[in-house]
Specification:
By secondary structure, this protein is α+β, with helices and mostly antiparallel strands. It has a domain of 247 residues: 2-Layer Sandwich (Nucleotidyltransferase, domain 5), CATH 3.30.420.40. It has 20 helices and 23 strands. The protein is globular and about 65 Å long. The termini are far apart.
């Protein structure tokens, strides 16, 4: 039996068919736009996302390898927090309001006045932030009453897709715990919070069984369209970063994933939720893992690989041309002459404002220590150093707040950079492991489907059967010592420059 993992991301979707041993049999991907009809708004056409995701499923299922081992289960990994008002047929009534949308400042103020930021974090694990689903619903309630009253339900992408695929809108407890509307301890909708906000739980998808639980089967007409004769079990999936953590083997307390893509995300597994005030103040969310009995704390750096891409495309054009002519990687060329140790530069990677734990949208990037001897390679490595210093700031806070971290599992595009991986090990003084399959979100979703379909008895067995590590990177004590005073200086950069950066 093969397994389909369908990932619905913010800017694109991907469908991958995996063999039961974790090998990729086929895959397809599509991209879609983010709409900005007004400043601070971020929306998306959910019907277009559905259409393009279905194209991915058809393309992946049509591959010869997938046909030779027909899929028997499907689960989703989805972007979180986005909300879609739908009619009785599950059709979107307006564009999706995405997690990155920041229109709900006023609604968040109202929530703080009613409940208090401390109580909301204690109950739901979600700090007060514009990313959350709850203030988005309050905004719809106040600003689009015709949509509010016309909507049969308010869904996220996971339950939106499950409704289309199998006829029932079901949401995983993992995804539901990202909304600020679920009681983190009980795993049920927080009825008192919702009642006070005028939100009927009947208008939300019902939380499904434990992660990896079956919630139905793919509609027969859809299975026929995919060319699949047997039943395809549908399963609860989860938040994309939680699914990626599962696909990276983060299934025990003390393990953590660092996903370095456009942004950089850390997910730390815990046996019980750490709801320390420092996490609340730093905007670090705590929610349910897709692994039963575990919780995750999540940090976010908005820049990540996007900062490297900016440097490559603006200041590394020669290397881009050279790479195209030689078949080499442009980033490898940019870093070819980088120093072995610290650069002597300090780069503040707040090019899109700061992420956790500062959460300063007015902050900006900065580069200190330039001389006439500074080279392109120095700056390229300084970018990696700055991103890694920011990673360490978040790891140190997580540890101090009661989330021990023994090792990091690295996924995403950044996991292909040996220099960056070693920097993370050295600066953060922590070992890293790199899985063979870097499409961790799709794999994690597929494994949940495999549990639901009976291929594996539980998620631990699923990971043991499929997740293999190809590399382990150990911190080098001499480099850790060399970077320690540089990190101490880095911690002083933002406080010293904050007010100046606000005026730039």
């Amino acid at each position: 039996m093969s397994l389909i993992g369908l990932d619905i991301g913010t800017t694109g979707c991907k469908a991958i068919v995996f063999a039961a041993d974790g090998r990729i049999l086929s895959q397809a991907k599509r991209e879609y736009p983010i709409l900005t009809p007004q400043p601070s708004w971020a929306e998306q056409d959910a019907e277009q996302v559905w259409y393009l995701a279905w194209e991915c499923l058809r393309e992946a299922a049509a591959d010869g390898k997938a046909k030779a081992d027909p899929p028997r289960s499907l689960a989703l990994s989805c972007q979180g927090e986005a909300v879609i008002p739908v009619d009785a047929n599950g059709r979107a009534l307006r564009p999706t309001i995405l997690g990155m949308d920041t229109r709900t400042v006023g609604e968040n103020q109202r929530l703080c006045e009613i409940f208090g930021a401390d109580e909301l974090f204690r109950r739901t694990g979600m700090p007060v932030h514009t990313i959350n689903t709850l203030p988005k619903l309050l905004w719809l309630q106040a600003n689009e009453p015709e949509i509010w009253h016309a909507a049969k339900q308010f869904l996220l992408y996971e339950d939106f897709f499950l409704h289309r695929l199998g006829g029932q809108a079901v949401i995983s407890t993992c995804m539901a715990s990202r909304t600020q509307m679920m009681d983190l301890a009980s795993g049920a909708w927080a009825g008192d919070i919702l009642d006070h906000c005028g939100i009927d739980t009947a208008r939300l998808a019902q939380p499904g069984p434990l992660q990896g639980g079956p919630v139905g089967v793919l509609r027969r007409e859809l299975a026929d369209e995919l060319g699949i004769k047997g039943e395809v079990v549908l399963a609860t999936g989860g938040h994309d970063q939680a699914c990626a953590a599962l696909g990276a083997g983060v299934i025990a307390p003390g393990l953590a994933m660092v996903s370095s893509g456009t942004a950089e995300v850390v997910e730390v597994a815990m046996s019980s939720p750490a709801l320390d005030d420092r996490l609340r103040d730093g905007g670090i969310s705590v929610y349910r893992h897709v692994v039963p009995g575990l919780y995750l704390a999540m940090t976010l750096n908005h820049s990540g690989g996007l900062l490297l891409r900016w440097f490559r495309d603006t200041l590394g054009r020669w290397q881009v041309e050279q790479a195209a002519a030689s078949g080499q990687d442009a980033y490898d060329l940019l870093l070819a002459d980088a120093p072995a140790g610290p650069t002597g530069l300090l780069l503040l990677p707040h090019f899109a404002g700061s992420g956790t734990p500062v959460l300063d949208t007015r902050s900006k990037g900065a580069l200190l220590g330039l001389t006439f001897a500074t080279t392109e390679a120095d700056i390229a490595k300084a970018i990696l150093e700055g991103l890694t210093y920011e990673l360490r700031v978040n790891l140190d806070l997580l540890r101090a707040a009661g989330a021990p971290i023994a090792e990091l599992h690295a996924v995403g595009g950044g996991a292909r950079s040996s220099i960056w991986l070693q920097l993370k090990a050295d600066i953060c003084s922590i070992p890293l492991r790199v899985p063979q399959v870097t499409e961790a979100a799709c794999l994690g979703a597929a494994l949940l489907g495999g549990v639901a379909g009976g291929e594996y008895p539980d998620v631990t067995a699923a990971v043991n059967a499929t997740v293999r590590m190809k590399q382990r990177i150990e911190p080098r004590p001499e480099q850790t010592a060399a970077y320690a005073p540089r990190f101490a200086l880095y911690e002083r950069v933002y406080p010293a420059l904050r007010e100046l950066l606000w005026q730039c």
